[in-house]
Specification:
The protein is of the alpha+beta class. It has a single domain, classed as (Glycosyl)asparaginase (Glutamine Phosphoribosylpyrophosphate, subunit 1, domain 1). 36% of the residues lie in helices and 24% in strands. Strands 1, 2, 3, 4, 5, 6, 7, 12 and 13 form a 9-stranded mixed sheet that branches. It has a 4-stranded antiparallel sheet with strand order 8-9-10-11.
Length: 326
């Protein structure tokens, strides 16, 4: 769509994953850690918007903070594959130009979201994977880390737990032995993908998403995060969306773009578009997860069909961070 013709108030929204997130399972100390990390990401991205930077700059900065935080399943602190590796995915989309970039299955790039942006801006492509993506990022001068940087004991214990039960865990499951503790862990589903959407002072929208995928996932598995239109989408005058949840359902339903299409072609308002898409793509098909969304008027809407979602927003009206459903 044509670019905006008005000056608007900048806004940024982020998420750090959705799932079975309750006060009883999280606890006050851990809740405080998550709130502090979300606040740091919001503050970093919004500071750029206040300085006149683009929405793309803001979402990349916010996601970079979350990738550097071991609390989230993206970058440092990402989950392990079945064979004990960490494989990272990320994407960005610029609503002004319609350009997008993504990387998948990378193992050494410190901030995959930066690599995704470089793919968008410095290549003719949208998606690069594995070794090819890493060679490109290295040529671009991006920071690399040894596997030990990404390794956290909590994620390693999750893998051992999942291996013992031949299960695939959906992130943040509490470490512990088999039996009752493991049963609790299986019910403690948290999708740790991180993401951001932003609207800048010129009215431009942007979105970014980053993840480590699923604990004990098959080697080479790629979810919705680096798939434009599934886990990430932005279009000026319409909406910016970043998702988290059961990636296969997001891909089958082209979930992020479905929200945009409802707004663009059916003139639905943002909450209606999000909820109807979640119904058709997730609830009716047995999938779980959620999205953060931001329309051209600066309206933020968080939609999810889980007990909680790490989320927050910041604008001239102030900063707000939420975790639980209500």
């Amino acid at each position: 769509m044509a670019g905006p013709t008005r000056i608007t108030s900048p806004c940024l929204a982020i998420h750090g994953g959705a799932g079975t997130i309750t006060r009883a399972l999280l606890g006050p100390a851990q809740e405080a850690e998550y709130r502090a990390a979300l606040t740091e990401a919001l503050t970093a991205g919004y500071a750029l918007l206040q300085q006149g930077a683009s929405s793309l700059d803001a979402v990349v900065a916010a996601v970079q903070v979350l990738e550097d935080c071991p609390l989230f399943n993206a970058g440092r602190g990402a989950v392990f594959t079945h064979n004990g590796l960490i494989e990272l995915d990320a994407s960005v989309m610029d609503g002004r130009s319609g350009l997008a970039g993504a990387v998948a299955g990378v193992r050494h790039i410190r901030n995959p979201v930066l690599a995704a942006r470089r793919v968008m801006e410095q290549s003719r492509h949208v998606l690069l994977i594995g070794e090819g993506a890493e060679q490109f990022a290295l040529a671009q001068g991006l920071a690399f880390e040894a596997p030990a940087y990404f390794h956290t004991e909590r994620r390693w214990q999750q893998l051992q737990q999942a291996r013992a039960q031949s299960a695939v865990l959906l992130d943040h499951s509490a470490p512990g032995a088999a039996g009752a503790v493991f049963e609790i862990a299986l019910n403690d589903h948290k999708y740790g993908t991180v993401g951001a959407v932003a609207l800048d002072a010129a009215g431009n929208l942007a979105a970014a998403t980053s993840t480590g995928g699923l604990t004990n996932k098959q080697f080479g598995r790629v979810g919705d995060t680096p798939i434009i239109g599934a886990g990430c989408y932005a279009e000026n005058g319409v909406v910016a969306v970043s998702g988290t949840g059961t990636g296969e359902f997001f891909m089958r339903g082209v979930l992020a773009y479905d929200i945009a299409a409802r707004i663009k072609y059916q003139q639905q308002d943002l909450p209606s578009a999000v909820e109807q898409t979640l119904d058709s793509c997730l609830r009716q098909r047995g999938g779980e997860g959620g999205v953060i969304s931001l329309d051209a008027q600066g309206q933020v809407y968080f939609g999810f069909n889980t007990e909680g979602m790490y989320r927050g927003q910041i604008s001239a009206s102030g900063l707000q961070v939420e975790i639980y459903h209500a």
